[in-house]
Write a structure and sequence with these properties.
Two copies of one chain form a homodimer.
Chain A: H1 17-38, E1 40-41, H2 43-47, H3 49-58, E2 65-68, H4 75-80, H5 85-88, H6 118-132, E3 138-143, H7 150-159, E4 166-172, H8 183-193, H9 202-205, E5 209-213, H10 219-229, E6 235-241, H11 249-253, E7 260-261, H12 286-300, E8 304-308, H13 319-325, E9 329-331, H14 336-348, E10 352-358, H15 366-374, E11 381-385, H16 401-406, E12 412-414, H17 419-431, E13 437-440, E14 464-467, E15 471-476, H18 481-495, E16 500-503, H19 512-518, E17 522-532, H20 537-544, E18 551-557, H21 567-573, H22 578-588
Parallel strand pairs in A: 2-3, 3-4, 4-6, 5-6, 8-9, 8-10, 10-11, 11-13, 12-13, 15-16, 15-17, 17-18
Antiparallel strand pairs in A: 1-7, 14-16
Helix pairs in contact in A: 3-10, 6-7, 14-15, 18-22
Chain lengths: ~600, ~600
């Protein structure tokens, strides 16, 4: 195996082109096998193997600095920079993250998992080099949809004025996660069609030197291309055409589905070209009832419009769903800032926008939520997906959306606990005209009570008391309402009294009347929230009871970035199991209990 | 006066060009007089008078929709849309806001005060029109630096694909607040120099139809230009060259200083062309000690670099200061997202970045603070200016930076209370290598203790007890430390005991040891913070004491957008006067006191 000889990028430099091509084939097989076992980003990594080999062949890493955008196309880079064991040895598949990680290798500069950051980061690295009088190359590798994010543009705009070496590699595979959306991609197409020769050139207009390479999956061509830009003395763009999913036919054909795959998809019969086996129909999920709801509403009302910032697959906005919606659907590309402002204006214009965003990516929009949306009290429906404590990478945590969203004036942030509540909230939110409404889509398996919810959500901050008890009140928000119920049963069973249980429904305020009513027969209130405690929901309850005899305990996540820590370990750490909560309750309750 | 006849834009349509020109002159005089009396944005409004008149002459507002970016160039629009009294009558100068405001006129669609939002908002309005089958024109008027913001680009990228009417007016006065920064502005210059004919065209590259008008200060020319784009059936850019400050010579010459003026500047002798009178040297301010500190450090250490996202004047980064720093200064343009990522990478590259941002504008960077900066624990110094409760416009409140910043893991957010603490914090922050550090620059008048601060700020979350007392502990953060001292004196005087006073220094955590030490001899803790309570500092204290006998009262601002409410009225509303705090203390303390 050629790969046996490669421990660091320098080891590439003695290989022939034939050997490099063999290496690419070895790497491709390893990546498919590993990702098909663990799940992960497949298409982007298959597309960038040859470019990565050529890049490390021409440049000198770690002296030369390479910053990967999103970094979900860094697997080939990882294999070449001391981490091949994570791909060769199934037992070590889990050792390295799916993103760049400075603690793993001197060839990684940043922990990166959000898109559109590489150019800004590279500009800073290049400027620091200039201040220190260095001469090394600084590269940003961007593509795969990331160019539509505002931060990428802000970075390009500043990078162009750097007056020294910075090389932006645009990996153009004609795809974002789904199809590319936005005017820029028309220009990339024109440039591809003219092999980089069109006069109309986005990058040149910003002031970059510009080079084009039509075959990013040819190591030989890419070596020549990189040699042309190496040691450039001014800001330079190398626009490279690659094939997403290159080398795995089903990934080349089904680019969107193979962007990120679940284990087994690389050999699943679902993607056989002849006689594919249709997957068994899925049970109802929160994603499926969301899309069913939107489709039904959209048919009835032409003002309904669904919006996604380039992650439609994450919440079930399949190609079929999008096609059914037609002009009642917009994928704005990776552009959450625009998505929020756009939705706000749609609502002002009389439309009924439903915007779906991942918890971790709504972080890109604080100011738009504040200024474009909430200051203007536009009645949009914002669905926040994947908001929960999880074993995710440190770059994709869903624990910060409550602090982020719920402290913005005028916002109404709802936390449903079952199907019926969720559907009722959706219906209310879409039809009302007064509030910007966020709904934290449950992250649990779908739970149905079978009983229609009749709550009037226009009564803002009115909590629901689902069990009227004494001594202890348990407020379980959203995903953690079930945990609250479990704790309540344990308390009754082990401590011999029936506690009060409250489903707050709202994360943005306090039901003062209900809280006051607790004072006469309760001495302890506990709050449970599936997110970061700092700035979160529970602290509002603590503040409210600060000047009273009621004691309060807040349960939720610490303010920290966790990195692939198993969920059960996090629950132990944060005392989020019924047993540990019970222990804390026992310590906090007066001895008389 | 021609203006007597103008109550709504339609009234323009019967006027001759001569009359329109006279009207422009009348409006110019009114704007200079008004702004020179009240203070406000002058240069941008003087530059856009003729364009605004022509726009309202050609289009039909409010049927046609016009969205102003930042909206600090909306004064001429306000005069023509029913609000001329606010400029004619000195007694009504304060009646209308300096920004667009839907509650004032049907011709305003959004409350806008942050930049770079107009294209996104217009895209939403246009799409809503398309869904409803409407035919009206939708215009965004952007310029004056706003084009560098990421949201503007995200909006352009989506607007270009709209396939229907949207008209982006680019008001190109070759200036941001200070000089324009970024590659895009080279392209705008090329387009101006070639009267719009250059092949290399940023807007065309994104897919827009493009028109250029060289004389945006000619009503006649602009009428013709607007007629060309009216009823365009696809996304269109009209690039207009205007003169910032047009018609007031000193504003034309001193564009940056006359962007926003204080009362009297229009006739101050400081700007006389012959024998200008130098203003008296200013007393020391937090801005002046900041720039002195940066200049001194930068001379000693070439790795020091100061960064501003296009608002250098707001914190004393004068032209002279910038020139002295040379390549140790970057104005990234209006691009806070990039600014944070750039600073983070500079620090990773070994430089020592000091980034200054306004409290209200740091809102544009939550995700960059989280992912680019704090996840990577880059040691930058982030100076947050104007963070305080104030009588500002609803778009420029400085009350949300504590909730925004202090709940992000790894961040250290400091709140100095005097000159010596501030300088010590600056020195520590710049020289340390472990933490992303924010400093909330005091908004009070400068206060000097005359005694060097020797605190070791590497001991994170260690509060400072400045008065050791009993029963009551008053934690006064940053700007409100002085208020805490005043309250303490009142308590001693009126209640006859000496309370404890604490300067927390850190806004990002709790000094558990010190808090625990309070338990034996205190029954009440109060917190004072100059910002929004929800998600803020005080709630962390409330949570910490939730399960104890200590009662806690948090004082600070409610979660609301206030709009030019006088500061004293807000202090009354939030119980932030010594008298009202004392009343609340009396109610909360056990009767035995």
């Amino acid at each position: 195996m050629i790969l046996d000889k490669i421990n660091m990028p320098n080891d590439l430099k003695n290989l022939t082109i034939d050997e490099l091509n063999t290496l690419a084939q070895e790497m491709r097989e390893l990546i498919v096998k590993k990702v098909n076992t663990t799940g992960g980003h497949l298409g982007p990594n298959l597309g960038i193997i040859e470019t990565t080999i050529a890049m490390h062949y021409v440049f000198n890493c770690p002296e030369d600095k390479i910053i990967f955008d999103v970094s979900h196309q860094c697997y080939p880079h990882k294999i070449l920079t001391g981490r091949k064991e994570g791909f060769l040895n199934p037992e070590k598949y889990g050792v390295f993250t799916g993103y760049t990680a400075p603690e793993e290798s001197p060839c990684d500069l940043f922990k990166v998992g959000h898109t559109s950051t590489s150019v800004s980061l590279a500009t800073g690295i290049a400027k620091a080099r200039d201040l220190a009088g260095g001469k090394e190359n600084v590269l940003a590798l961007i593509g795969d949809g990331s160019l539509s994010g505002g931060e990428a543009y802000e970075g390009l705009n500043n990078a162009a004025t750097l007056n020294s070496n910075i090389i932006i590699i645009v990996n153009d595979n004609d795809m974002s996660i789904a199809e590319n959306a936005g005017g820029l991609y028309q220009n990339l197409k024109l440039l591809r069609d003219t092999k980089g020769k069109a006069e109309l050139n986005f990058f040149k207009s910003l002031g970059f030197e510009y080079f084009y390479e039509d075959d990013g999956n040819s190591i030989e061509a890419m070596i020549e291309a990189f040699k042309k830009v190496k040691n450039a003395d001014r800001p330079t763009v190398l626009h490279v055409k690659t094939l997403k999913g290159c080398g795995l036919r089903r990934a080349e054909i089904n680019k969107e589905r193979f962007h990120y795959i679940m284990p087994g998809m690389a050999d699943s019969r679902e993607f056989d070209e002849i006689n594919p086996v249709k997957p068994a129909p899925q049970a109802e999920t929160y994603a499926s009832i969301t899309t069913d709801f939107i489709l039904k509403k959209a048919r009835e009302d032409k003002r309904i419009i669904a919006i996604s910032p380039a992650t439609p697959g994450a919440y079930g906005f399949t190609k079929e769903f999008r096609e059914k919606l037609g002009n009642q659907y917009t994928d704005v590309g990776i552009a959450e800032e625009h998505a929020v402002a756009y939705a706000s204006a749609l609502a002002k214009g009389g439309a009924k926008p439903i915007l779906s965003v991942m918890s971790s990516f709504i972080q890109r929009t604080y100011d738009q939520l504040s200024q474009d949306l909430c200051l203007n009290t536009s009645p949009i429906t914002l669905l926040i997906h994947w908001g929960a404590i999880s074993g995710a990478d440190c770059t994709h945590l869903g624990t910060f959306d409550i602090p982020l969203i719920s402290n913005i004036p005028n916002m109404v942030y709802l936390a449903p606990t079952n199907k019926e509540e969720y559907l009722r909230m959706l219906e209310w939110s879409v039809e009302q005209n007064e509030h910007p409404v966020g709904i934290r889509v449950p992250f649990n398996a779908l739970k149905s009570t079978g009983v229609s919810d009749t709550t009037d959500y226009s009564k803002i901050n009115r909590f629901k008391m689902t069990q009227n008890g004494e001594k202890l009140a348990i407020i379980g928000a959203g995903n953690f309402y079930e945990l609250a119920m479990t704790v309540a049963q344990e308390v009754q069973c082990k401590l011999g009294f029936k506690p009060t249980v409250i489903n707050p429904l709202f994360l943005t305020g306090v039901d003062k009347e209900m809280m006051d009513s607790l004072k006469c027969s309760h001495s302890l209130v506990i709050t449970l929230e599936d997110g970061c405690l700092d700035g979160g929901f529970g602290e509002k309850i603590s503040r409210y009871f600060g000047n009273s005899d009621i004691r309060v305990l807040n349960f939720g996540a610490d303010k920290e970035f966790t990195d692939r820590v198993p969920l059960q370990e996090l629950y132990q750490r944060y005392h989020l199991t019924p047993e540990l909560i019970l222990e804390d309750i026992l310590k906090a309750l007066p001895i008389s209990v």
